[in-house]
Amino acid sequence: MTKDRFKVGIVGIQPGRSWGAMAHLPALRALSDDFEIVGVANTSHASAQTAAAACGIPRAFSSVAELVGSPEVDIVVVTVKVPHHFEIVSAAIQAGKQVYCEWPLGNGLAEAQELARLAQEKGILGVVGTQARFAPEVEYLSALIADGFIGEVLSSSLVASGMAWGATVEERNAYLLDLENGATMLTIPFGHTMAAVRTVLGGIIELSARLASRRTTANVIETGETRPMTSHDQVVVDCLLDNGAPFSIHYRGGMPRGTGLLWEINGSEGDLQVRGENGHAQMVRLSIHGASHADTTLRPLEIPDSYLAGWPQDPVPGNVTRVYARMAADLRNGTRTAPTFDDAVALHRLIAAVETAASTGCRVSL
């Protein structure tokens, strides 16, 4: 597929506060040689008109169906809440559009598998937004390990805060409290971070897990109202990596008072440590500390300029920009370097294995 610029229609823009506005708009505009934003659709025409006017988008489509069916649109970008992903993405595929869908791809493994099947059947490039794997710190971490900085990986552990799923919640995020919506601490921060972990350390071949609900309610910040919370606020997973190394993970709901994200990798010749202000590795600035061979203490490791130059410095649009750049290259060259719907299915399968292990109390093989 060769074009001077790919024409993009975005579903789900709330000026100044939605992920589409904060991440996708600046990412696409940073790649203006590859992409042209032609329009937006929201839940109503009036909402789309407001978003278009505030964000400088040329057209407000009257409906999602009009955007998906428009000959002006080459790529449909889906940035709405998870329960709506399946309907919009499947409609876009049926209309012959290329698709960029935010993670999670579907509300559960079955939806993701069906969307991947539809995309393959229609010959559509489906890209999923698991951008943490392309963060410059994650790419540098992969290079350090590949170059033998710590020798053979012996074990790893990760503890992180989910930020949401704590004692309080913003009204606009209250849907996260309901397990049935598929937007949980397990699917969102855990899922995004596991995409990066799998890139660095390889696959997980078996695991056991515990999902706990230590909080059963949350207070809405704006109103003080108490809402039930069925999403888990504790995720504990014990894994075996495909190289035989053990790996432990603990995600905790709520805002961090101390550790936001701490990922340690122990090797035969050294150690690496990744830190972040919270557990959403896809959207925070990470730092790397390391000790190798004769080093007796960890020291900060600067990310080489080659990993940073030419990209937005803010990690929110910066990491999304890296995915879009790969998508453009894949459409032009027939390659598959951006995370695809098949990659999303593999990640959904990992999450389903965690859920199965937690519900049965049995160790699960992948």
TrEMBL record:
Residues 136-276 form the Gal80p-like C-terminal domain. GO terms for molecular function: nucleotide binding. Residues 6-125 form the Gfo/Idh/MocA-like oxidoreductase N-terminal domain. Pfam families: Gal80p_C-like (PF22685), GFO_IDH_MocA (PF01408). This is Predicted dehydrogenase. It comes from Halopseudomonas litoralis.
